[in-house]
Amino acid sequence: MLRFVFWAFRPCIEVFKHCRKVINVDGTFLIGKYKHTLMMAVTVDANQQVMPLAYAVVDSVSSNFNTHAKSVKLKDMCFKARAELRVAVFHRIMEQIKALDPNAFAYLDGIYKSKWTLSHDGGKWCGVLTANMSECINGVMKRARRLPITTIVRITFLRNVKNFYDRLKDATRAHNMQ
User: Fold this and answer.
1) Residue 158 pLDDT grade (very low, low, confident, very high; cuts 50, 70, 90)
2) Taking every annotated instance into account, which residue ranges of this chain make up the domain MULE transposase (predicted)?
3) How confident is residue 62, by pLDDT bands cut at 50, 70 and 90?
4) How far is Cα 100 from Cα 94, in angstroms, rounded to an integer?
5) Which pLDDT does position 63 carry in this prediction?
6) % helix, strand, coil for the chain, step of 5
């Protein structure tokens, strides 16, 4: 019985030394033989490009806000609160969330604000909203959800090779233009 598997590629680990020190971990459910979750750790490089760092397949996922947010309006308000830079405006949005759904408010209020909001992060997230990073990667990985795990590992390897090759081509082209 598979419980978990983890993999990362050395170039991805090395490139992180030159990226913002913000890592986002998100997952997508696998469909088929394994009822697991494919987790991805990603960051943003200096060119504002999403960079995968590591992958894992795990047999369980902790609950997240989607289990608490039943409406699109509530999810939008949560994203608004998360992206707000001004503390006073953040608190106003949180009061609106509380009026709309006290359980969702209690869930959010129970999480350290420095872990999920820009208004309370002390600048350490550098203005990066990690949800945007995850959506980029999830859009690509959702198509692989029905594949065997070994094939998913191979696909992530090939995508990373292509990604680094394309970036090398772009950098070489830019250097030759000077």
Assistant:
1) very high
2) 22-64
3) very low
4) 10
5) 41
6) 55, 15, 30
Helix 87-100, helix 72-83: angle, nearest 10: 160
Unique residue bearing structure tokens 């995968």: 52
pLDDT digits (tens, 9 = 90+) for 13-31: 898 888 877 777 777 778 8
Q: What pLDDT does residue 67 have?
A: 57
Task: Return all residues near 141 (Cβ < 8 A) that are at least 6 apart.
Answer: 28, 38, 40
Complete edge-to-edge strand list for the sheet that includes strand 37-44: 4-8, 50-58, 37-44, 24-29
Contacts of residue 45, Cβ cutoff 8 Å, sequence gap at least 6? 15, 18, 19, 20, 51
For tokens 């002390």, name the residue: 122
- pTM for the whole structure: 0.59
Residue 41 corresponds to which tokens in the numbers above?
Answer: 């750790």
Boundaries of every domain in the chain = 4-62+126-177, 65-111
* DSSP at 117: -
| Tokens encoding 21 | 């020190």
**DSSP class of residue 50?**
E
User: Token pair for residue 50?
Assistant: 């999403």
Strand-pairing partners, residue 152, are none
